[in-house]
Amino acid sequence: MDALSERPEMQLLFDTPAGRIVESFADGVITQTQVLDFYRRSLPQLGWRPDPEQETRFIRDTETLEIDFPQTLPHATNETIVRFRIAPRAEK
User: Which of 13, 44, 53, 61 is deepest in the core (most CB within 10 A)?
Assistant: First the structure.
């Protein structure tokens, strides 16, 4: 998303036997609603489908992608901070 800038110093990548865990942060002068609207339109084109149980979660194959908005982070500004987290999908 053009309005967001990635924060590479906060990225986490970890492979487990159950699958990968990726956590990435970005920030920008944009609203949470604009971020979610953009990804709701964009992610299905990449094979992600909305999770009917949680509006900020998407599912693809054996993974989930969660988008949330932490309140504070080190060196945060007044910009919107977005966390993207991919993890193995929990079996129900």
Answer: 44
